């Protein structure tokens, strides 16, 4: 399984972060009345079916939708069918999908070979038995070929569960309670990690209904600041030490806040110095999206070896699946049965989907193709000379546009009006995550839409 990296040059992190800080400090501008009226007319005229169904859904579903990503103003879209890089709503509108359900549909939506393997498995054994199935072992062996140095693979049901279990394992292994995450990072919705989401040092601001004591053993360090992490580790020494440091390899929120190329090596060194485990969250970056099977394998990230790696989302091509891998026999022994229960862990349906997904990525050379399409996307966006775009960065097919003005949420709405689904992890950043199967034509179509994005969108 050979792979090359999806980035030709590492950005100047200090320069990018300084630009972002300046942008966030800019004064807010209101949305012009005529612009809002034009926006609302589009949805009223083109998406009447979605509007009617969401109104009906509000009578039986809180807010009218079940998933946070579905929220949209003035109302969510109702998707009728999905195919590859495209989604189609019930009114017949087509959208290029660069959101990919937040990451799971790594091969695009409704990918035939994965679906066929799942249907075959469901017909043969059903979706779950609660007992052992050969696909569990086959999947674990395949993961070991992706990461030859890995000891064991533990199937789980989601990224939230994977991060939660990884922390439990770290605490059991070290005998320590405290964990440190990076401010602004997202590691799922388990109570102890709903802490300083999106914005550093906001602590329990978004922890609705979660007692503060639950995250009492959770601390944070400022993004891309090894001195901040060192201070947090040293402060924990007086309280029994640190069980683990949890990081996203490209920085919080999938690289929304960049890290220096030697940052992860610095984290590894500090963890070793303080006898803490290093947990790398690859829920977004794993399974080939960044030009290697896992981002931590990249030499340009310092060639580190974590203690535990968590992943989910794309591993099963859109079907629910998560997991974690470990390094070292003693640590891996704690993954044994009885240490954690999970009803759907290792189920035949999810394991079959993961086997098919990884097999397709390998056979079709999609890691290398992700590098090519990612370079095409980044180069094409900057070639538009759109004054709204300050820079574009990314690895493989995980990319971001840094804006010259803090108007990202308005930009997402404009893009949706024009048939492109993206999201805004911060006021100055647009996130683009095409599927690994995106064609040259798909990428060019998206670039064409982005080229037309106006420079006078409302700021936030």
Describe this structure in words.
- There is one protein chain.
- The protein folds into two domains: 13-91 and 365-390 and 407-451, Alpha-Beta Complex (Aspartate Aminotransferase, domain 1), CATH 3.90.1150.10; 112-363, Type I PLP-dependent aspartate aminotransferase-like (Major domain) (Aspartate Aminotransferase, domain 2, 3-Layer(aba) Sandwich), CATH 3.40.640.10.
- With 460 residues, it is of the alpha/beta class.
- Helix 4 packs antiparallel against helix 11 and helix 7 (226-237) packs parallel to helix 9.
- The protein contains 14 helices and 15 strands.
- It is globular and about 65 Å long.
Q: Could you tell me the radius of gyration in angstroms? A: 22 Å
What share of residues is helical?
A: 25-40%
Total beta strand runs: 15
- Provide the β-strand percentage band: 15-25%
> What is the count of structural domains?
2
| Residue-averaged pLDDT | 89
Largest sheet: 7 strands, mixed
What is the fold named in CATH at topology level of the largest domain?
Answer: Aspartate Aminotransferase, domain 2
Query: What is the H/E order?
Result: HHHEEEHHEHEEHEHHEEEHHHEEHEEEH
CATH architecture of the largest domain: 3-Layer(aba) Sandwich
Distance between the terminal alpha carbons, to the nearest Å? 44 Å
For this entry, give a set of tags.
Aspartate Aminotransferase, domain 1; 460 residues; 7-stranded mixed β-sheet; alpha/beta; 2 domains
Topology (elements, then pairings):
Elements: H1 13-24, H2 33-46, H3 48-57, E1 79-83, E2 86-89, E3 94-97, H4 112-125, H5 134-146, E4 152-156, H6 159-174, E5 178-182, E6 218-221, H7 226-237, E7 242-247, H8 252-255, H9 263-273, E8 277-281, E9 308-311, E10 322-326, H10 329-332, H11 348-363, H12 366-383, E11 389-395, E12 398-403, H13 408-417, E13 420-421, E14 423-426, E15 429-432, H14 440-451
Parallel strand pairs: 3-13, 5-6, 5-7, 7-8, 8-9
Antiparallel strand pairs: 1-2, 2-3, 4-10, 9-10, 11-12, 12-15, 14-15
